[in-house]
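Lecture 7 notes: from sequence to structure.
We start with the chain below.
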Amino acid sequence: MGPYLEPTLSLAARCPARGRRARLLLTLLAALGAAGCGFAPFTRAMRDGYGVDDARLDEVQFFMGSKCVLERQVNQASGEIVHGRLRVRSGSAIDVVRIPRHTPGVLEFRTPDGLAVSFAPGTFFYFGPDPRQGPGSPYYLLGRYERSTRRFLVLHAGVEYVLRSPEPCELVVRKRETRSRSRERTTLPGRRLGE
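Predicted C-alpha cells for the same chain:
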C-alpha cells in the first residue's frame, strides 16, 4: 500500500461519510486510469502498428508535447544625414516564438524522414524520429546543431531560431485506449449411448 493511500484509508475509518466520498474518489480515479485516455508521443511504431497509412495521416490531430520556445536576435540599424554627417543608430531586439504545451497542429506535408506540422497558418515545423532510438522514438522537432556555439537551430518561416526549451519538443497525439473482452459460450448437448 502506497503512502498516498494511507491518509485516505485512515480518514475513511474515522468518518463514514467522508469515507464514502474518499472511496468514490478512488473509484473515479481508477476508472479514469483504466480508460487510458491522454496524450502519447507520436512514433513510427504507432504509425505502423495502428495502421495509420500516409493517406489517413491527414486525419490525425497533432499537438506540441511540451512548451517550446524559440528566439532570435534581430539587429536594427537606422541612419540619417544630419548637417552633412551620417548619424547611425544601432540596437537589437529579441524575436520570441512560443508554442504552448498541447497547442494543436495539422499535417502540412510528409517528408522522407518525417512530417511537416503547422501550428499557425502559413508556417510549419519539421518533426522526425531519432534513428538511434529505433521505431519507438517520438517525433522530435528537427533542426541543426551548431557545434561552435552549442546551440540547436530550428527553421521557422524561413528564418533560423535558437531553441530555448529545456527539454526536447516532441509531437504528441491524443490516444484513447479501450480494452475489450469477448466471451463465446457453447453449451454441449451431451451424447447418449448408441447415438
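Points to note: The two ends are 58 Å apart (CA to CA). Confidence is low (pLDDT under 50) at residues 1-36.
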